[in-house]
Amino acid sequence: MRQTRTTWWGCRAHVVYTIVVFVVLASLDNAAIALIPSMIPQLRGSLGVGTAALGILTGAQVLVTAVTAVGWGYLADQRARKQLLLWGTLIWSAAMGASAFTDSFVVLFALQIVAGIGLGSIASVGFSVISDFVAPARRGLAMSFWGLSQGIGTLIGSLLASQAGAISSRAPFLILAGAGLVFSLLFLVAFEPPRGFKEPELASLFDEGEIYDYDIDPSQLDELVAVRTNRWLVLQGLTAQIAYGSLIWVPLLYQEKVIAEGYSQATGQQVGGLFAAMFSIGALFSILAGHIGDRWQHKNLSGRAYVSAIGILGAVPFFLLFFWVPLRGLEVTEGASTLILLGEVLTAILTNPWVALAFGSAVIALALTSADSPNWFALIADVNVPEHRGTVFGVGNL
Fold first, then answer.
1. Does the first or last residue of the chain, that is N or C, have fewer Cβ atoms within 10 Å of its Cβ?
2. More confident site: 317 or 155
3. Span between the terminal Cα atoms of the chain, in Å
4. Domains of the chain by start residue, with CATH
């Protein structure tokens, strides 16, 4: 099929603009998931429920996000992806905005489930699009930025919730909903690449003005299962997500550690959120891990898998350490502003051995773990044709 376009549509600047919008949407997706786990001390009081109830709410939202991502991924392999992402963003943004105006746990639960349906679109549909912007030789490096944006989103959500949400949860919900709506508008003029846009085998096709117009259909699902690498990626994704899922509770873990040192709920929420945000520095290592994966894959087709395995297994002892180490002797100012608390936390990292141990082990654990995501993403793109990638990603992410 021959494609038609205006002079500027699909030019380099337009592609860069589109990638930026996609990356921000991916970060907002993870920021939304991180909100409630980082506001639990405040929500317990305002909603009159316990930590377990809020844990069930968060778990239900994550489950809905994961399950619906499979459906969104299949639709992304079959239909225009731009419209799917637009509708998904509008759904979760509206639900997040409405969450700011309820004091009922039941209503909040229902709204977060609706938000989860919309959030499911971002990862699967977004991955399908991003993979078409990236040439095979640089997939690991490029996917590291895609994965890093999700980590930054978690950091932003945690900071927003723990600082602005220490007194009231309304502001974080409204800010995030507003950001989602703004970027959904910016997305209206984004460039949707044709499937296989950067595949070397299809370069001559696109040079001639044609497009690769294959779509998935139910009869092809057996082909996806028949790919042995897909089966291993899904199995690894299942076990990995059990571990990664626990990381959304790091803000609460460290908030409770601060409260255990005698500080108030509000101060504990702020300081614990700052710790969780600073721990995320380790995720920057994913850029190097993606580059190493590209180089190793060029020499050995198992290269990406080796990088992921080394990172995940190497992180285990550091995770055990950072989960269990206490914050003994932590000294911060009760009721202080975020800037003052940030300075005191940084000082504690340099002067308090317990805090230094927690920080060091967390950064190393997250640095090693971050080796997995860019190489896992790249492997899915490597072993699947363009019209199958959204579906496989959705199942693997489940």
1. N
2. 317
3. 34
4. 12-397 (1.20.1250.20)
